[in-house]
């Protein structure tokens, strides 16, 4: 049984000491591919170095994470745009979007950065991997304004309501990224997902964050995506193999 981790930051320093073992465990668990979203200019080199060490297994994205957007965000975007204009290995624009949980100081800059990176997605015909925290309505309206551009991608780490899921799935090319949050005791996601077709879901870990039960509290890694898969099999009352097959097909549609 093979499946895909569509969102993992294994290039971060949390994995510097044991990355080969982390990769071995992922492969042993059944992870056939790992997609890696960028954070900012400081992470581009470690991201690409990791991808080079694991060719045809790890695949990079390029983007500026909303929590990294500040007064010099245009300089960061300029560096990334120059890379996109060259022959490049990037399979998506990500991780991009809005985050108003920590701070609203740079909300206007976040809007501009998000819009700019949506233009990249359309220009280079690359999917978007969208981060949205305490900013559902803002993100929804931005995507709605750009709906005519035939965008596709993933709403990463979806934890919203049935109504929010329905609104996001109106965008035909988009899928919901489900990670370890669905295994948390107080999570409402299991009930919400009963209203979401499995055909619109992809698996992710967001490693090293959001570790699923039973390892919650420990560093997350790609092998743990299997725990999320098993939870989804219980929610959808189907075999783990079916969840693996459907979510893998969904991921490959996005990152084709």
TrEMBL record:
InterPro entries: DNase_TatD-rel_CS, Metal_Hydrolase, TatD-like, TatD/YcfH-like. GO terms for cellular component: cytosol. A divalent metal cation 1 binds at residues 7, 9, 95, 206. It comes from the Bacteria. A divalent metal cation 2 binds at residues 131, 156. Coiled coil: none annotated. It holds the Pfam family TatD_DNase. One of its GO terms (molecular function) is hydrolase activity, acting on ester bonds. Keywords: Hydrolase, Metal-binding. The keyword Transcription does not apply. Belongs to the metallo-dependent hydrolases superfamily. TatD-type hydrolase family. This is TatD DNase family protein. It comes from Bacteroides luti.
């Amino acid at each position: 049984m093979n499946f895909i981790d569509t969102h993992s930051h294994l290039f971060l320093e949390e994995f510097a000491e044991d990355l080969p073992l982390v990769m071995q465990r992922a492969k042993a668990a059944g992870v056939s591919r790992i997609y890696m979203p960028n954070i900012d200019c400081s992470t581009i080199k470690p991201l690409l170095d990791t991808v080079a060490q694991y060719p045809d297994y790890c695949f990079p994205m390029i983007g500026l994470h909303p929590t990294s957007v500040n007064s010099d965000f245009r300089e960061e975007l300029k560096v990334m745009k120059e890379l996109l204009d060259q022959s490049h290995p990037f399979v998506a624009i990500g991780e991009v979007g809005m985050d108003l949980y920590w701070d609203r100081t740079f909300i206007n800059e976040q809007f501009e950065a998000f819009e700019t990176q949506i233009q990249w997605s359309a220009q280079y015909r690359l999917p978007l991997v969208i981060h949205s925290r305490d900013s559902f309505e803002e993100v929804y309206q931005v995507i709605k304004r750009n709906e005519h551009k035939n965008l596709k991608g993933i709403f990463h780490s979806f934890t919203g309501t049935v109504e929010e899921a329905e609104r996001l799935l109106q965008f035909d090319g988009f899928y919901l990224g489900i990670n370890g949050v669905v295994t948390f005791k107080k999570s409402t996601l299991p009930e919400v997902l009963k209203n979401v077709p499995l055909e619109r879901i992809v698996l992710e870990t967001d490693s090293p964050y959001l570790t699923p039960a039973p390892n919650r509290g420990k560093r997350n890694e790609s092998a743990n995506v299997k725990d999320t898969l098993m939870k989804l099999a219980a929610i959808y009352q189907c075999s783990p193999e079916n969840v693996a097959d459907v979510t893998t097909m969904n991921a490959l549609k996005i990152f084709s």
